[in-house]
From TrEMBL, chain A:
Domain ATP-grasp residue range list: 129-304
Keyword Cytoplasm: no
GO BP of this protein: SOS response
Protein name: ATP-grasp domain-containing protein
Ribonucleoprotein keyword on record: no
Biased composition (Basic and acidic residues): 322-332
One cellular component (GO) term of this entry: cytoplasm
A Gene Ontology molecular function term of the record: ribosomal S6-glutamic acid ligase activity
Family matches, as PROSITE patterns: ATP_GRASP
Amino acid sequence: MILVAGGIADKVTELVCSRLDACGYPYCHLDLGRYPFGYGMSAQWNHGALSGYFSGPDWRLDMQGISGAYIRFLGQEGRIAPPDLPEAQVRELQLEADTALMFVLDDLPCAVINRLGGGMSNNSKPYQLLLIAKAGLLVPPSLVTNDPQAARAFIARHGKVIYKSTSGIRSVVRPMGDDQMARLTLLRNGPAQFQAFVPGDNVRVHTVGDRLFATRIRSEAIDYRYAGRDGMAVDMEPADLPPTIAEACRRIGRDLGLLHVGIDLKETPDGQWYCFEVNPCPGFIYYERHTGQPISLAIAELLHTGGAVQPRPCQTPAPSSGRREHAAPGPA
Amino acid sequence: MHLVLGYPNDSCCTAVAARFEALGLSVCRLDAAFAEPARFSLDIDATGRATATLALAEDRVEQVESVLVRSSGAIDPAGWDAADHAYMQAETQAAALAWLAALDCPVVNGANAELWYRPRKPLLYWRSLLNACGIRVPDILITSNAADLQRFRAKLEAAGVPGAICRSLARHEDWLVGLDDWTGVAALQRYAPVCLAEPHATVTLLCIVGNTVIWDAEPLPAASALSEKLVQFARCANLGFVEIAVAEVRTGLAVVHVDPVPMLEHFSSAASIRIVDALTDLLAGQAHERRKEMVS
């Protein structure tokens, strides 16, 4: 049996549920839009082993009988609560219940997409770059600084440079221009991240266990996610990865303890592959709908079979120890 | 130069900085990384080779020999719009984590994203690693089921334990549940799962600094025998500096609390001095070893 924990209004969760239905794989849906109200959970750790169950309006699921769990936590917006409770109490109950659920889900003895811990590196993009490089991929030359002089030197060294957020807070990637150069003195108020512009096609890779789905995105926009806003087109098609790049993508997922990630790559005109980011909670629906790549089917199959179960890592890997050789692009 | 990053009123930062100075070693104490007047930079090349630098004065890059990290740094909200402050706080913390991870010198506690963003974890987080190191933890139950709650209570009462600990996993607060409190716990449970833990006897505190275990008071032989396993736990958790509380539970001696940000205030003055000495020795010693490696 499969556990899906996510909001019923979340399109990605909805797609995973639809795919499980289509495959005939039984699952129970814990609606995080309503949880904890109307749902139950009991978990106990005896001699190191977790036992217990989840329950919903018309179901009860033993934790030992779960082959896979798919989780997408929600923000605070749109959550439903009993009308008889004051909002402050509701928030507190939801916070406490969510935290308890996170600990239990992280400890489930089955395939979990995804355990939370492995995704924490996404809150610091440069920290994640260090992990990505350790997994064997090239990364864009980057500078994080609160020193205007260092920023000017970096920009002079690399020519075309973009800037983007350092943290997990989403930002639109923008090129450095005269307006931004004039504002560099504001760096004294806090740091920013600068990256050498890497030309080429964006390639988004979704991992599902050891399976990979690579999508090539062709767009003139610097940040293709916002191409429409800038009046530019986006074309997508399935892509092949050189074996060494493919293996490095699998390695990143394994190193982070994440069964399903979205990896942002770029292939330069001279055949170099750069990795920009690893998304631990990818909204793959955009790519699946444009290309027909069976990402949700792969997720459904992994959840059903249990895949190669990854136990909860006690610690995520530290980026500073040992560095692997970098993957040279091989034949496509 | 040895760098101490932490809150201005943190007694551990103050004591370690003073100890470095007493040893005649150069030390710099900062409230946060990437904050004025210091200039921090992290330069990462295409292969991931990183250079982390710190300049305290114009045109002078410091040679950072070790770092003691006590907090991820908080930006003073004065003068900031609330949304801008939240953004800049996130940006600064993200930059600092990467900068620390890129340093080629001892960093205590080493940069780790999970602990950086949520340093104070409930015992539940450490449970599996403690168990793997052969260390017991108290029974823990998370439940929204009234019958399971009753069973947990009955099990404890049958063993002569009159109450339980009700734990907030989000707020890191514990309440003792006495005979009169079970009704309140049951009322809470009607809306959301509650976390209950088996109560424990009086705690004995200890601090692990590198491979050294510093007990707050003379430990009982059973507690002392646990030292090796505790050091193994700290090593596996990549914690060079950690505060741990041990106490008797029904089944024997257990770890009941783990804190990767030890507070000197929890310890006797004699133990605090030993902790600060050990911590300074660890940072300076590792820095010395690192220098020797680089020379050879």
